[in-house]
Amino acid sequence: MRGPQRPNQSDAIVRCEPASLFSTEPGATMKPPSTGRERILREAIRLFAKRGYDRTSVPDIQEAAGLSRGSGALYKHFPSKEALLAAAVERFVGEARESRAELGEMMLPVDEGSRRLVESMLERLGANRDVLRILWRDLEHFPELEGAARGEIMQSTYLAIAKWLQEHERQGELRAHDSQAVAAVIVGSVAMFRVFEAIWGERAIDISDERFAAAWCDLLLRSLRP
Length: 226
Description:
Blueprint: H1 18-21, H2 35-51, H3 58-64, H4 81-105, H5 110-126, H6 129-138, H7 143-170, H8 179-200, H9 209-224
């Protein structure tokens, strides 16, 4: 993998602290982006996923967003190229938080809940294939972003699903089990199903989301029902 390139003046890096990017204070929300800001971010994510962060310049992003390459208009919305990368990760983190909140509020029997859970994970990860490519390939050079993303997307999701499993065990719908280990297995299977798509542009095996979800639920329920 290529090492990080030294930024030129147009790609100046502004370091961002995880606490400011991924606030976990109750009620913390992202401000709705302006149309121009959203277009710039969308094109930046697409280009980062396609070419890689290092191979994408600010003029490239401006041109893709319908702006003049040398206009500097991007800086009206983002202070740097790294700020675009941070915004892409922050958006994904925000969606992960929403998913955990929905899971915590879900009051369904375990069979219906498991189906809702896997479908939600497939949908959200599928809508973020480009961000998955970026997370997989480019974040090693940005330890603050990588650490925040790892904690918010991976670890917190595992713990939320472990808690969901524990609640259904408490209600007698599931037998006693190692909820954290089971959460790692079931989340990991969904994540890798989508990661293969993101990296290679095609599925490792030609099955639909519906077939995957049905098999996922069948394995979970057959193995853990009392």
